[in-house]
Amino acid sequence: MSDRLVFSMTDASQVGVARRAGSTLGRKLGFDEAEAGKIALVVSELGTNLVKHAREGELLLSIARDGAARGVGVLALDRGPGIANLAEALRDGYSTAGSPGTGLGAIRRLSATFDAYSAASGTAMVSFLWSAAPPRRDGVDVEGVSVPKPGEDVCGDAWTVVHEARRSLVLVTDGIGHGPDAAAAAAEACRVFKAAAPGSTALDALARLHDALRPTRGAAAAIAELDAERRTVRFAGVGNVAGTIVLDGRTRSMVSQHGVLGHAVRKMQDFTYPWPAGATIVLHSDGLAARWTFDGYPGLVRRHPLLAAAVLYRDFRRGNDDTTVVVVREVA
Q1: How does DSSP assign 149-186, residue by residue?
Q2: Are 147 and 325 in contact (CB under 8 A)?
């Protein structure tokens, strides 16, 4: 089973398919029957809401990893019409469809982490359930979505993160093309990165990827090295993976070099940027339109990073490519 599953919530039958997949995913990760049942309930409630209320609904399941902890992330996205009073909708007993109105409140209670965002363009909700409590980590919170090109079973994009005491390194990679060969290149990039990143700079880790990807079809990749002590981001990239620093509505793009890791790279270079307090960092593959923006989404940049990544994916994906969006926020 893939680390990520995507379901279009077009009718009630899809809710059942997603519910069974969520329960299976939980058992695969070591959840007991009761905990796997909670996953199934969350998936069922979110999927049912999408079928009832959304013009266009999508539900994503993913494996969450944090140290030795394993979890399931459930993400529900729709394109409208939005929820006028989200706080009221999360209260038990609230309903606009004649139901008992216990669904969203139950989801929040069952979830280890829950957040929701609604605007005129639609609603996004995220729930995390864990088999064991993940470690509490000061520094950064990193979350993202990685979704295959429509019609593909596997995603040629991938992302991962390595945390150290005072810094974190985040990789986003895009295997050339689509399908299994692109996915294999992206997976190899993640594997090598996890081994190479500890104690290495972003540029050194990128060079290791270049050497390791020679037997594959190659990939674009970018690594953001976040230093909490120096308040800097060191960024090294090759190909069409973009990085942006966002603060108070202003954006600053970070620089990648041309080329394909594993094949043709004329030059590797890293660049260091200030990482101001409160700044958000967005990394994405070229499945996301270059002119994405947080304008028109008040407060979203300060919400759970997966919500921010998911809304950008929903509203700015090109629709003809694998798409990955990763959002990094500082946490106290």
Answers
A1: PTT-SS-SEEEEEEE-SSEEEEEEEEESSSHHHHHHHH
A2: no
Q: Low-confidence residues of the chain, pLDDT below 50?
A: 1-2, 94-102
Q: What are residue 41's phi and psi, to 5 degrees? A: -70, -45
Residue with tokens 């969006």: 325
Q: What is the pTM of this model?
A: 0.91
Structure tokens at 323: 């798409």
Condensed to tens digits (0 to 9), the pLDDT of residues 173-195 reads: 999 999 999 999 999 999 999 99
Indicate whether 79 and 181 sit together in one domain.
Answer: no
The dihedral formed by the CA atoms of 103, 305, 139 and 257, expressed in degrees to the nearest 10: 160
DSSP lists the bridge partners of residue 101 as none
Query: What's the CATH number where 217 sits?
Result: 3.60.40.10
Sign of CA dihedral 111, 25, 40, 57: positive
One domain, residues 166 and 245:
yes
| Domain harbouring 20, CATH code | 3.30.565.10
Residue 16 and residue 7: Cα distance in Å, rounded?
A: 11
pLDDT single digits (tens) 239-287? 999 999 999 989 999 999 999 999 999 899 999 999 999 999 999 999 9
Model pLDDT, residue 91: 66
Distance separating alpha carbons of residues 71 and 61, to the nearest angstrom: 10
User: CB–CB of 135/124 below 8 Å?
Assistant: no
C-alpha to C-alpha distance for 120 and 151, rounded to whole angstroms: 29
* Helical residues (DSSP H) of 155-294, grouped into ranges: 179-196, 202-212
- Give pairs for 84-88: CB < 8 Å, separation 24+: 86/116, 86/117, 86/118, 86/123
Distant-in-sequence, close-in-space partners of 87: CB < 8 Å, separation ≥ 6:
none
